[in-house]
Amino acid sequence: MTSTPAPLGAPAAGALYDPDVLAGLVAAVRDRLGDRVADAVERCMADTLARTITPHPDGTAFVITGDIPAMWLRDSTTQLAPFLHLVGADPRLADTIAAVSRRQQDSILHDPYANAFNDGPTGAGHRDRTGEPGTGQSPWVWERKYEIDSLAYPVQLAHDLWRITGRTDHLARFDEVARTVVDLWRAEQRHETSAYTFERTDCPPSDTLVRDGRGPEVAFTGMTWAGFRPSDDACRYGYNVPGNAFAVVVLGYVGTLASEVLHDDVLAGDAAALRADIERGIRVHGVVPGPAGEPVYAYEVDGRGGVLLADDGNSPSLLSLPLLGWCAADDPLYTATRAMILSDANPYYYSGSAASGIGSPHTPERHVWPIALAIQGLTSTDPDERRELLDLILATDAGTGAVHESFHVDDPATYTREWFSWANAMFCELALETAGLRTYRRPR
Hints:
- Helix 4 packs antiparallel against helix 5, helix 8 runs antiparallel to helix 9 and helix 13 packs antiparallel against helix 14.
- It contains 14 helices and 17 strands.
- By secondary structure, it is mainly alpha-helical.
- The longest helix is centred in the middle third of the chain and has 22 residues.
- The strands form seven sheets. A three-stranded antiparallel β-sheet has the order 3-4-6. Strands 8-11-12 form a three-stranded antiparallel β-sheet.
């Protein structure tokens, strides 16, 4: 890392959390898993609070992803995942997460197709040809790659905070946000009539969309289309199955909040109808024959016969389906899919002398993602496997004390991204699960 995180006794400016609550969690990890794991959890969680979150006077908070000074809607949710287990005991931390949620919701209303934002109209980031008429993007937007999960994760965070604490002050604009999400996902069921396009020049093919920015051709399936994966790489086929599964889960949250908080029966009904459409599309088009003919989930399909059997180190992924709330970890269709993607049948599964696990075309070949290792542990039904994966992540940090984006399976000293807060958070989630301290479980 580039600097030493603040110690737990010195909370960041603005009193983002109660240091005693966090110190108590670290002490419990130390008691159950030992000093090495506890020190890493302390370092990672303190770093998130000290260096990634900037509160603003308007009641929002901006969260950078790490060594890139932009706020990804996905990352800013997952970076906070281990802190959800503390908000019931720490009102200041709950206020911080509420502030992040408000910022996420404001960002969605500013541009629901964008995946990453600036902390103001600075014009930083990528300047791509996108949208209608395809001549630019807002200076508030760092990048406008449309991904399903960029809308799903903020809804998840808003719902989680309400479910844990009962508070609703972060939901003042949620009716607008939820309506925007439902309407966009409904429109993108028929992407050929959508106004969204995306083109980037002087870049790898994975950073732009073909067909004048429309992406590969798709047929109607009931699922909702995405231009890009959670890795920010272009989809090979337009229907990302784990992204659609996540949308189904999140539409359930929309329905719950619409009914119980907003008292909006129309929104609840629209969310339920879209949820049924997408789920039906997954069951009909997203379940395909595996390498031995057994039914498995595809990673992507196009409704025209195109099928990608794979998984990616980013989440939502097929590996993460139980963690997202789509299915149980012992669901037979999931376990068959899990066996496939944790094998050479997955083109992004790598094995070496230091590690084996799922990587991504977003990073160099034979690089495993610690996020995927953490998700493998979090979705495992075997406590021994969970502890082994926790120890593996610790053993492959190249002595930096940080969890990286990816590392080479034969040489962990060869890695990508020096500071990646999402990876730090997922390590903490696995540590808390292994210690029996991961107390919040999403409804399924």
